[in-house]
Amino acid sequence: MLSKMNLPNKLTMLRIILVPIFILVLCIPKEFFEFLKIEVAYDYMGYVALGIFAIAAFTDFLDGRISRSKGIVTKFGKIMDPLADKLLVSAGFIMLTGLGIVPAFITAIIVFRDFFVNALRMFGSDNQKDVSAGLSGKIKTLFQMLSIVFALLSYSMMPTMGIGSFMTTSLDMSIFELIINVAMSVTLIFALIATIWSFVDYFLRFKEDIDVEN
């Protein structure tokens, strides 16, 4: 199957493959490293997860750039590229919520939006509408990925510091740590706003395609 894909679609598949690897890295318990007598490695797993996420996010930028420059547009890409983004972003927010960095309500809104919009896309696809990502969806994805990058970096440096920690514990942070925590908090707020905007935008875009009779 991969041999028949163009380069943008291969990059999309790579992004999907990296998602479970990203999850696994953040799920490895400290006891595993203690058993192997390499406890120090546990302190760097956040950075490893950040690197994997950054590579996956870069493939999103790269496959879009290649598709636009070469005029490569396929039905597979229209469906799988947004799905790959959703898998990556959902995995990032769910893991960060489990680590106590991102509030659960933000993750719940993001995951709810993605499931609902995916259903709207299916209705639109049945009516031969263009289901590729719109401007609101692209801006939403940008802020979500930026917020995850900053959150993973914040977690790697300060495992117990979540959103808004700079307002109460700034004296315990270095200048760089303070900047990262502020950046994480701000991008998370913008990601939440963009997610709600995107939800409304897609609903208005596909509401006429919702079939409640069949």
Q: What report would you give on this structure?
A:
- The mean pLDDT is 85.
- By secondary structure, the chain is mostly helical.
- It starts with 6 loop residues before the first helix and ends in an 8-residue tail after the last helix.
Give the structure's gist in a few sentences.
The chain is mostly helical and 214 residues long. The protein has eight helices and no strands.
Order of helices and strands: HHHHHHHH
The low-confidence parts are: none
Number of domains: 1
Q: Looking at CATH, which topology would you report?
A: Four Helix Bundle (Hemerythrin (Met), subunit A)
Estimate the helix proportion, in percent: over 70%
Bin the strand percentage.
under 5%
Major sheet characteristics: none
Task: Sum up the structure in keywords.
214 residues, 74% helix, Four Helix Bundle (Hemerythrin (Met), subunit A), 8 helices, mainly alpha, single chain
